[in-house]
Structure formats: C-alpha cells, structure tokens
Amino acid sequence: MEVENLYEMLRKTQEAKGYFFNKERERVFELLEALIINKKRYGYMACPCRLASGNKENDKDIICPCVYRTPDVEEYGSCYCSLYVSQEWNQNKIPHDHIPERRPPEKILF
C-alpha cells in the first residue's frame, strides 16, 4: 500500500512536469520500494541505483528525483535508473541506450 501511495503521489506531481514513470510497472514498484527503504534508512529518498553515504548534505544531488534526471531525460529519454522517462521513451520512439553516470567520481563512495 505504501508503494502504491508513493506511486500515485509522484505520478501526479512528476507527470505535470513532463516526467513519466517507466512503462514497466514491476520495475517502477521495485525502485519505489527501494526509495522507501532508503527513506527509512537515511531519512531521505536517496536514489536506489546509487550508493548513498547517509550524509544528507553529501547525497543531496542523488535525492530522488536527483539533479541528474533532467539532463538524462533530455539527452537519453530516461534517468539513470529508468524510473523517470519521457513519453517517447515509453512509446519506443527513441533508443533505450545505457545512461552513463553523471555523478562526479569524488561523490561516489567505494
């Protein structure tokens, strides 16, 4: 139920901005579940496709929707996780290419 509520809330707010959930609903729900887990773990919804540090200030660039989403969707039609996509991406009108990591290496923890 928690995932469905998050889905509906984000769908409404993000579609109004021109960002759509990936048409693969199962994948979307997996990513939303991971966002909920990160919210419980860190206190913020860190990108589930990246390693969060637990330091909100350090991770502010990867709090979903991350700062990389707009350039990713503009250039590739999809964000790094493929959670948010363009309509053209969902309609298979553009290639589903690999999205390169835009996060600077110094922010990525190993």
Structural write-up:
- This protein is mainly alpha-helical and 110 residues long.
- The protein is built from five helices and two strands; from the N terminus they run H-E-H-H-H-E-H.
- It has helices at residues 2-15, 25-42, 56-59, 69-76, 87-90, and strands spanning 20-21, 84-85.
- The protein has a two-stranded antiparallel ribbon with strand order 1-2.
- The mean pLDDT is 95.
Features:
mainly alpha; 2 strands; 110 residues
Report the sheet with the most strands, covering strand number, pairing sense and barrel closure.
2 strands, antiparallel
Helix content: 40-55%
- Which band does the percent of strand residues land in? under 5%
Instruction: Report the average pLDDT across residues.
Output: 95
How widely separated are the two ends?
A: 34 Å
Unreliable runs: none
**Overall 3D form:** globular
Strand/helix succession: HEHHHEH
Radius of gyration: 14 Å
Structural class: mainly alpha
How many E strands?
A: 2
Strand order across the largest sheet = 1-2
- Helix tally? 5
